[in-house]
Write a structure and sequence with these properties.
The complex is a heterodimer of chains A (124) and B (898).
Chain A (H helix, E strand, L loop, with lengths): L14 H9 L5 E2 H11 L8 H13 L3 E4 L12 E4 L1 H23 L5 H8 L2
Antiparallel strand pairs in A: 1-3, 2-3
Chain B lengths: L1 H11 L4 H21 L5 H23 L5 H16 L1 H30 L10 E7 L9 E2 L3 H10 L3 E16 L2 E11 L3 H5 L5 E2 L14 E4 L1 H8 L9 E4 L2 E8 L24 E4 L11 E6 L5 H18 L9 E5 H5 L2 H35 L1 H9 L4 H37 L14 H31 L15 H34 L9 E7 L18 H15 L4 E8 L9 E6 L13 E7 L3 H4 L6 E2 L13 E5 H7 L9 E4 L10 E7 L14 E5 L10 E8 L8 H10 L7 E5 H8 L1 H35 L1 H9 L4 H33 L12 H27 L3 H6 L2
Parallel strand pairs in B: 4-9, 6-8, 15-20, 17-19
Antiparallel strand pairs in B: 1-2, 1-10, 1-11, 3-4, 3-7, 3-10, 5-8, 6-9, 7-8, 12-21, 12-22, 13-15, 13-21, 14-15, 14-18, 16-19, 17-20, 18-19
Helix pairs in contact in B: 1-2, 1-3, 2-3, 4-13, 5-11, 5-13, 5-14, 11-14, 11-15, 11-21, 12-14, 13-14, 15-21, 15-23, 15-24, 21-23, 21-24, 23-24
Classes of the chains: A mainly alpha (124), B alpha+beta (898).
């Protein structure tokens, strides 16, 4: 068995996985709350179906990037399962952002600035 | 909304179980919530999207989980382990039951395989036969008698159907070697080519060559493997070394292979003095004079059958009857396959019966395991139904249950095999020394295969019921409320299992009580002496120092021996606590015998040579009868005053007195050795009447015996002298150091050998019966124990399942006694059926065991009445305890559950 997983081993993350990890940075959330947070932080652009969402949850918790935890409010009646970021998950998230940052910097270095906006202005 | 969540559940049914178990509920509730939260006009889109997404996810997850070959099975095993960990007691009980069943049956199979199935450890062993002089008419001992050296020489030349004829007899040797304390070894004098005829290879050195068994050849010896390891630490250099055997120089020429101990005492007729294990072979020429005392072994030539050999020897006997004067009727030889001699019919029957018993025990264990598994399966029916409702198909549930059974069976198979291996080791080391072929027992490949097969059978039986339950659970996919009612779909199966177990237990209990009964009968037979507080030991006088040991039976020629014995006896009698000491050759129960034709005064002349009376001939000293605790019925014992110069006297036993002088007292009558009153031997006057002493076995028939004083009568060879020393209460074995000192003080420089309490000799004479009885008893006890435990468990389970029904009955005013009867009847009825079916089976087995029984009929009414009655009492007790709990049911509590 490898001693300790390195964050780089998990890269690159899928779009949706990145969003889920990001949604959990501040606090543990239950499933539906994660979906809402993802929708919010992507300005409604990312809206996974429930089944796909749980496939991502399964993948992330199998990789131990997130973990199911008891309701953080200590509310026993709240039967919904909450998910929190593990330490590893946090490091993977950081590593993925660094990777994306690097990519963005490279794009900028080559002078493609706001190309998307410009392109969209002059298209069609 | 309800329709939507149902649709979700329906889609998720096909998802892999682990995914479904983990997220199924969350997905359904979240998807439902998302649909509910949507604005009314977008709700339909959301519904379609969610369902499509769930469907796609399910397909994706299924693809992902599609098992790599074997992976599904691994998952099953893991699930099975998880389940077993949750119920350790039940799994352990199941494993324990199967371990007992597999272990016992494997041990029994090993016994059967070792004694009956494996070929004898010689080359082409089925062509080996023994030749016995066949004398059915002599009215003495067994009809199979040893052969004379002259006849052997003749057979070696003339027997055309044989490719090798060997003759041998037991002998004892004082062995001296460099760095070895003088020890006495049980060995064999044999013709040189014995090893070639048996077709074995030496472990070191060589076997004898043809010239080594002729008169005047230098002495050559072959060491047994154990002796080689023990005395010579297994050095190869031992070959060629000089040793001294009975003070005569001898050369070690080779070492016999490991395990070669031919002939073993337990595999030869009891009346011959073969040691339990032969450890030394010395080449010797067949004697040309003296008694007939050789065992003859032959290898049938190519193409020759036992019948052909027998026909040839029959023809020779007829020819010899006319050619050799006075030998008419004494020339018959019987051909006995070696295998049949080594494992006589009685032993084969014993071993077969024991194997039958362990198979029955395995069946009881299987039945018991099935019962346990049934109870376990019923109690997890709900769990299985839940899995089925969530979409697990029948094959999956069955695989899960089978994995559990497989795990338990594999573990029990291993444990059972280990148990059997230990038992086999124990049997070889502390088992009866004279039980045929036990020394050859090993945990071999065949035994491993049997253990594997037994565990597969046991596992299958244990798995059958839960698998059936699993199948049924898979049948209804809808969730019913947890079942609590009295319905018990497998009631009939349970009844059948109870009946089968009780039936088997009855068979085993009857068999073991018959064996116990017959052992008790065997031990109750009077042996003619009292073995307590008596020690037997032997001295082997070396012929080099006492040349007269080999000389004929004329006392005057042996003053040295007589003086040595006199000196030793007086020293033995001076040991504190010793009340009597004597020589007796042979001592009772020690297997040696010498017999002689006699003539009695006043007896009508015999009509044929077979009418001449034959008597066992025992040379004793004064105090012999006192030392053996065998008071004379009439007359006097020998006294130290009976010497060569005084009147020749004899003590005879009851059989001889009746044979010679059927009317009137034998005291004062006279007899002599030799078949006619004209024989040159002196007349002996009867001075005492001795009781019948058992010679080899407890079931020996009584036979004529005569006792003569060592100072007056001789013996063909006095090389080995057995002594008996009686104490007033001291542990006889504690005498050994003082006996050693007495022997040294008497100037006899030989080791004290075979020092054994007489009690042990008597026990050894019945050890095969004891061995069989103990094994059978152990098997029966375990079988009855399993059956009783199974019944207890069944009744307890039935009570717990029927709590509600019983509660209703109590509420309706049922009396406690009625409840107990209700519960107990369910177990006792099939038990009674089982017993009823078991009894005839037991009767059949008893008839098969006829040869093993002694003094008890196979249809012994007491056994057949008392055993089932006792068993019934035990069964009733086992049922009553849990049934009492039925009366403690609180109707309020049980009815509240509704």
């Amino acid at each position: 068995m490898p001693s300790r997983p390195r964050p780089d081993d998990f890269l690159p993350l899928t779009h949706l996985a990145f969003h889920v990890l990001l949604a959990l940075v501040d606090q543990p959330l239950h499933g539906y709350a994660i979906v809402r947070a993802v929708r919010l932080q992507s300005a409604g652009k990312v809206d996974p179906g429930t089944g796909s969402f749980y496939s991502i949850i399964r993948g992330l918790s199998d990789q131990a990037l997130i973990e199911p935890i008891d309701s953080p409010d200590g509310d026993a009646a709240d039967r919904r399962r909450f998910y929190g970021l593990t330490a590893l998950g946090r490091r993977v998230l950081a590593a993925e952002s660094a990777r994306l940052e690097g990519l963005v910097r490279e794009v900028h270095r080559r002078g493609v600035r706001r190309a998307v906006k410009a392109g969209s202005g002059g298209g069609r | 909304m309800r329709a939507f969540s149902r649709a979700c559940v329906w889609l998720l049914r096909r998802a892999p179980a682990p995914y479904r178990d983990r997220f199924g509920a969350e997905i359904v509730s979240m998807a439902t919530a998302r649909v509910a939260d949507e604005h009314a006009w977008r709700r339909l889109t959301r519904v379609v999207r969610e369902l499509a997404d769930i469907n796609a996810t399910v397909r994706r997850e299924r693809r992902r989980e599609a098992p790599a070959p074997g992976a599904g099975r691994l998952h099953d095993l893991r699930a099975a382990l998880r389940h077993m960990r949750r119920r350790p007691a039940a799994s352990l009980a199941l494993a324990a039951v199967l371990t007992v069943g597999v272990g016992a049956s494997t041990f029994g199979f090993n016994l059967l395989s070792t004694v009956l199935l494996r070929p004898l450890p010689f080359g082409d062993p089925d062509r080996l036969v023994l030749l016995w002089s066949y004398l059915p008419k002599i009215q003495f001992g067994t009809p199979d008698q040893p052969i004379h050296g002259l006849r052997l020489r003749e057979l070696r030349v003339s027997m055309a159907t044989a490719a090798g004829v060997e003759g041998f007899k037991a002998d004892t040797f004082n062995l001296d070697a460099d760095g070895v304390d003088r020890v006495r070894i049980d060995g064999l004098l044999t013709t040189a080519s014995l090893f070639e005829t048996l077709r074995v290879r030496p472990a070191a050195g060589r076997f004898f060559t043809t010239g080594e068994d002729v008169v005047g050849a230098p002495c050559a010896a072959v060491l047994g493997y154990g002796l080689w390891q023990r005395l010579f630490s297994g050095r190869d250099a031992v070959v060629g070394e000089a040793i001294r055997l009975n003070d005569r120089g001898c050369t070690i020429v080779g070492v016999a292979p490991r395990g070669f101990e031919f002939p073993r005492g337990g595999e030869m007729p009891a009346s011959f003095q073969y040691p339990a294990r032969t450890e030394l072979w010395v080449a010797a020429p067949p004697p040309q004079s003296g008694p007939s005392d050789l065992t003859v072994l032959a290898r049938l030539g190519p193409g020759a059958s036992v019948q052909a050999a027998q026909a040839e020897l029959d023809a020779q006997a007829i020819e010899r009857d006319t050619r050799v004067r006075g030998s008419r009727g004494w020339n018959e030889i019987r051909v006995v396959p070696l295998r049949q001699q080594v494992v006589p019919a009685g032993i084969a029957a014993t071993v077969t019966a024991l194997f039958g018993a362990v198979v029955a025990l395995l069946l009881v264990a299987c039945g018991n395991a099935a019962q346990l598994a049934l109870v376990g399966g019923l109690s997890r029916r709900h769990d299985l139904t839940v899995r089925a409702a969530l979409g697990a198909d029948a094959s999956r549930l069955i695989r899960l249950v089978a994995a559990e059974a497989g795990l338990v069976a594999a573990a029990s198979g291993l444990a059972g095999a280990a148990l059997a291996a230990i038992a086999i080791r124990l049997m070889r080391t502390i088992g009866p020394a004279r039980f045929p072929r036990l020394a050859e027992a090993t945990f071999d490949a065949r035994t491993v295969m049997f253990a594997a097969a037994a565990s597969v059978v046991a596992g299958t039986v244990a798995a059958a019921a839960p698998m059936w339950i699993a199948r049924r659970a898979a049948g209804h996919r809808t969730l019913h409320p947890r079942e609590r009612g009295s319905s018990d779909p497998l009631r009939h199966w349970r009844a059948l299992l109870i009946a089968a177990q009780v039936g088997m237990a009855v068979v085993l209990a009857v068999a073991s009580s018959l064996l116990i009964h017959s052992l008790v009968q065997r031990l109750a037979v009077p042996i003619g002496f009292s073995p307590d507080h008596t020690l037997a030991f032997e001295l082997t006088l070396p012929s080099a120092t006492y040349p007269e040991v080999l000389r004929g039976p004329v006392p005057a020629s042996r003053p040295a021996i007589i003086n040595a014995v006199d000196a030793l006896l007086s020293r033995l009698r001076a040991i504190p606590g010793v009340t009597a000491a004597a020589v007796g050759k042979p001592l009772p129960m020690s297997g040696a015998q010498e017999a002689s034709v006699i003539s009695c005064d006043g007896m009508p002349p015999p009509k044929s040579s077979f009418d001449i009376p034959i008597a066992e001939y025992v040379v004793v000293s004064d105090q012999f009868f006192r030392a053996l605790g065998s008071p004379l019925a009439a007359g006097r014992e020998f006294s130290a005053g009976d010497r060569e110069a005084t009147e020749n006297v004899v003590v005879v036993n009851d059989s001889l007195a009746r044979r010679c002088w059927p009317a009137g007292s034998a005291l004062g009558r006279r007899l002599k050795l030799g078949g006619s009153p004209q024989s040159p031997a002196p007349w002996l006057t009867v001075v005492g009447l001795a009781p019948e002493m058992k010679r080899f076995k407890l079931d020996d028939p009584p036979g004529p015996a005569m006792y003569v004083m060592y100072t007056q009568g001789g013996y063909p060879t006095l090389a080995t002298l057995p002594f008996a020393v009686r104490t007033g209460g001291r542990d006889p074995i504690a005498l050994v150091p003082e006996i050693r000192a007495a022997v040294r003080a008497a100037g006899i420089d030989v080791p004290v050998a075979a020092a054994t309490p007489m009690v042990t000799l008597v026990e050894a004479a019945s050890e095969d019966a004891r061995f069989a009885m103990r094994l059978m008893l152990g098997i029966a006890v375990v079988a009855v124990g399993l059956t009783v435990a199974g019944l207890y468990g069944t009744v307890a389970f039935a009570v717990s399942r029927r709590r509600r029904e019983l509660g209703i009955r109590v509420a309706l005013g049922a009396a406690p006694r009625g409840l107990v009867r209700l519960v107990v009847a369910d177990a006792v009825r099939p038990a009674a059926w089982g017993a009823a079916l078991g009894l005839p089976a037991a009767a059949g087995l008893a008839v098969g065991m006829r040869t093993l029984l002694f003094g008890v009929s196979p249809a012994d009414p007491w056994t057949f009445i008392l055993t089932p009655v006792t068993l019934a009492a035990v069964v009733a007790a086992a049922c009553l305890a849990p049934a009492q709990r039925a009366t403690a049911v609180d109707p309020r509590e049980t009815l509240r559950g509704d």
